């Protein structure tokens, strides 16, 4: 794979907390424009990997390159600025704020309000820029079909709708790479189908590269281009969805099957 084809290169990343090793020499590459899934049992290191990519954690060893730039030591807010957005396994919305205001928070780093230009900016282009940001946010609201709740208080919404609002806020960052940590957790089947459709459209129509952690194997196999499997912090497989599903090591680690393809009895 040539340099220009990849948007993210993770090289021999390990992460340790005291005597606990969450990740062990994990290496993988994500192509620009790809929908890439990360799967594995609970405690496999999936969210730890997301946290390393987004800057919440700094790897104990290894390097992370984004668009050719070494971002290993870059703090989380700077990674947002260079084009990495994310949602969280546990909702991180401002429950007391409206849906619209929560999404506008995602535009914060795009505002031109530094100290040197602030006074002239507020005297000049503030209103024009505010209108532009509002138009962009309304486009996201329309895309995710949440227009009816734009003025609702986020904390009063159903879990499925709050997950959709969190996705909207991540999209508002205008990232080149979006990290989705269990975007369909806790949803019913209809909500999952809607979210899967939004993720595919986000990837195909909006051109965002997607890395997704998801436990629903049906969704993963339906919409992902490639899949990586982690188990006990190590990469045990990577490939096309069909290859992953037929991999005996994956079936043993993820589905609890023995070498003969039979389920292990606890």
Question: How would you describe this structure to a colleague?
Answer:
- With 266 residues, this protein is α/β, with parallel strands linked by helices.
- The chain has two domains: 1-83 and 177-184 and 209-266, Rossmann fold, CATH 3.40.50; 91-174, no CATH class.
- The chain is 38% helix and 23% strand.
- The chain has helices at 46-54, 76-82, 99-105, 115-123, 126-143, 159-172, 189-204, 217-223, 241-245, 248-255, and strands at residues 6-17, 20-31, 35-39, 61-66, 69-70, 84-86, 177-181, 209-213, 226-231, 234-239.
- It has a six-stranded mixed β-sheet with strand order 6-7-8-3-9-10, with helices on both faces. Strands 2-1-4-5 form a four-stranded antiparallel β-sheet, covered by helices on one side.
- Helix 7 (189-204) links the parallel strand 7 and strand 8 (209-213).
- Helix 3 runs parallel beside helix 6.
- The longest helix has 18 residues, at 126-143.
- The termini are far apart.
CA-to-CA gap between the ends? Answer: 43 Å
Q: What is the count of β-strands?
A: 10
Q: Total number of helical segments? A: 10
Mean pLDDT: 86
Radius of gyration from the alpha-carbon trace, in angstroms: 20 Å
Spell out the blueprint of helices and strands.
Layout: E1 6-17, E2 20-31, E3 35-39, H1 46-54, E4 61-66, E5 69-70, H2 76-82, E6 84-86, H3 99-105, H4 115-123, H5 126-143, H6 159-172, E7 177-181, H7 189-204, E8 209-213, H8 217-223, E9 226-231, E10 234-239, H9 241-245, H10 248-255
Parallel strand pairs: 3-8, 3-9, 6-7, 7-8
Antiparallel strand pairs: 1-2, 1-4, 4-5, 9-10
Helix pairs in contact: 3-6
